[in-house]
């Protein structure tokens, strides 16, 4: 029991009511964004926790808590909770990590044309399933599918939610109740939560592993194929690479085997390069059209890896198989929306025009040479030196380093780059990294050897002045 002399009750009485807090100009402003019901909820939580603290605190500390004090504290806490909530929203960040296809940061940034396609063509009422020529219902996705067929040399194409969905869909429709033959070396986990064995299990197919982790021969596949075999599955081991004494039959050899046995040859390419990127160091990245030419019946890949478009799972291959997928009830559950089609069509247009290396941000970043980056970094460093005040102790220098492709593509490829390396005599690198991350817009960097590294490969030129301002304010 509280003794009668010490009267925290009085101070509790000084707490503002929820209504008083809501009447403050700050709360009124937040209400215009969050709505009265939500802000009332936040206000109640703020006052409850303040009441709790008052009850727990020592009396002499509470003595200072006048009615006005408590209102001021409540207002500032309300602003803070609302601010923290805002930070959890999807928001633009500056990716200064040098990881081009950064899954945590939304993978591929869209091209300007793709963004415009979403805003101007696809976001309102649109011709998603409407044929303007006849005034009747049209075929959803027809235009994107035609572009995909044209660019990959496949007979037909279909688009679903992502590549994991595509793999699940293909295996469910073609292998359920039967066996799928796959090389042990390709039973991989991709990106943390995509495991080929799990997908196979979900699809109701039985896995038949062949060969060893580093070597699988055509004869191993031949021995494994039997009357229950439905699919020979080849998975591009995107985010890891076994080097040295390795062997695997060519896709053409597998096609020969599969088609002789009336089995489907399905290749999951994952990153799915539409054009040859070996000039930019991505020598082992298979090009989709080559898989089709080699005889794969179905090939799947992501829309937001090396294609540089929206999240999507692209399925290309022989018409009869694509049509079976299209007519399957699962397609209805896995299909994509108008925004994805808008962005995908616009991204594919760049490949057809032959301007993908300039237009598609992912390809533009990957194709930047070390000299181009050195030039940009040099100019940026000069501007940054000018904008840092004399009393700013932030130090930086330009050093050699490497970027990363990311997104599970080409793990062994590390494009050379020039980095800005920052340190401060009075601030730990982790503190600088945190300040950058909490700025507006947030800047995502990495720390190596107690220095904060900034890789301009993944920073657009438009973002450079923002970056400059943010560094000047540290
Ligand atoms: C990335 C990847 C996937 C998963 O693709 P999502 O589009 O992320 O679903 C599947 N298979 C391979 C080989 C991959 O590289």
Question: How is the topology of this model organized?
Answer:
Blueprint: H1 8-12, H2 18-23, H3 25-34, H4 36-56, H5 59-62, H6 67-87, E1 94-95, E2 99-101, H7 112-122, E3 130-131, E4 136-137, H8 142-152, E5 156-160, H9 163-175, E6 179-183, E7 189-190, E8 194-195, H10 196-203, E9 206-210, H11 218-224, E10 229-235, H12 251-260, E11 264-270, H13 288-293, E12 298-302, E13 313-317, H14 319-327, H15 329-334, H16 338-353, H17 356-359, H18 361-366, H19 370-387, E14 395-402, E15 404-406, E16 416-423, H20 429-437, E17 443-444, E18 446-448, E19 451-455, H21 464-472
Parallel strand pairs: 1-17, 2-15, 6-9, 6-10, 10-11, 11-12
Antiparallel strand pairs: 3-4, 5-13, 7-8, 12-13, 14-16, 16-19, 18-19
Helix pairs in contact: 3-4, 4-6, 7-16, 8-16, 9-10, 19-21
Pyridoxal-5'-phosphate binds at residues 162-164, 167, 190-191, 194, 235-236, 238, 268, 270-271, 302, 313, 408.
Describe the 3D structure:
This protein is an alpha/beta fold and 474 residues long. The chain is 44% helix and 17% strand. Strands 5-13-12-11-10-6-9 form a seven-stranded mixed sheet, sandwiched between helices. The protein has a four-stranded antiparallel sheet with strand order 14-16-19-18. A hairpin with a 4-residue loop joins strand 3 (130-131) and strand 4. The protein is globular, with a radius of gyration of 29 Å. 39% of the residues are buried. The site of pyridoxal-5'-phosphate has 16 residues, from helix 9 and strand 11.
